[in-house]
Prior knowledge:
The protein is α/β, with parallel strands linked by helices. It contains 14 helices and 16 strands.
Amino acid sequence: MPSESDRNFDPIPYGRQHISQNDIDAVTRVLQSDYLTQGPEIGKFEEAFADYVGSNYAVAVSNGTAALHLCALALDVNHKSKVITTPITFSASANCIRYCGGEVDFADIDPETFLIDIGKIREKLEAAPKGTYDGIIPVDFAGRAVNLEELRKLADEFDLWIIEDACHAPGGFFVDSTGTKQFCGNGQFADLAIFSFHPVKHIATGEGGMITTNSEELYQKLLKLRTHGITKNTDGFTNSIEDAIGDPQTPELTAQEFPKWYMEMQELGYNYRLTDFQAALGTSQLARADEGLQRRREIAARYANAFSGKNYIRRQAGVVKGHAYHLYIIEVDDRLGLYNELRDNHIFAQIHYIPVHLMPYYKNLGWKKGDFKKAEEYYSGCISLPMYPTLTDEQQDFVIECIDRFYG
């Protein structure tokens, strides 16, 4: 192994995109085509992604946050709604409820999995009058799949919907009670699921997101909400032919068809569309998603082996069946010291996440330190190590060596 002075690495981030020549060719082809947006590439990407996760429908959108917002709108979240999510997630998982005027509640995490603790959700539901809560937003944090079969049973007991935040977990799965692999976003247990295509995610489109569902009703609502609340589906028009044509002198209006230009804005939607060149990039990236997933699992196994038995590790993301490994997280003492040591060696680890309830916005709503002790304990020592398919073994060995040297 080369000595530290012999190393000539570029900076090593915690995550990064991998853009191939096929990706570049796919985007170039669309840039030279007739459609930059609202063209055929959107449907191709949606169909390919639905097939990949095993859902009936997929709706491409501008980013993961937009996906969460549209899901909340499609489920009629409003100022009367109250929804439970995890405090260990990116704030968008909670913010989507606030966008619709709803109230956010949190349930603490299981410190062994870093996922929302289903037992804590049950405690919260049983302590409140039935009907207090409307839904749950579990997060497949770091790429580890929530057991949605178990969560669905709980949700049905209390008449709740589920939005699965699977931004970290395309290709991830859990094994259900029958021994079947249940892939994240397949719609078997959650009403809706969302994904992100930010550059550090498994599939990158620059910015972008996807919603998956098995409900045709929700799918049709999402299509309208994604595009200003507008529909061109003649079967759903509510205005008359006279209104559509706009010419009271036209004879025999009742015999006319709606003109091709006509469309109706039927509710207040948003412009949350994805472009065609982003969709083409996504389709190209999706073609090698399994290859990237396999490499992530190899990197995770190398980390797990390297840190096995090390007394400076409080807890780590071990090798878990079905884990998609968007992140590889360890918990340590003197996390700040390690973070700075890694940065001094041009290794740019990251912290995922500051508990949402301790963000000033949510503290102003009444949350405070001590409300979710497991989440706060996790935050005190968590650090995400470099994890992306193009990370080389030599680079990973250097990361491990720097950590060993810091604690040794």
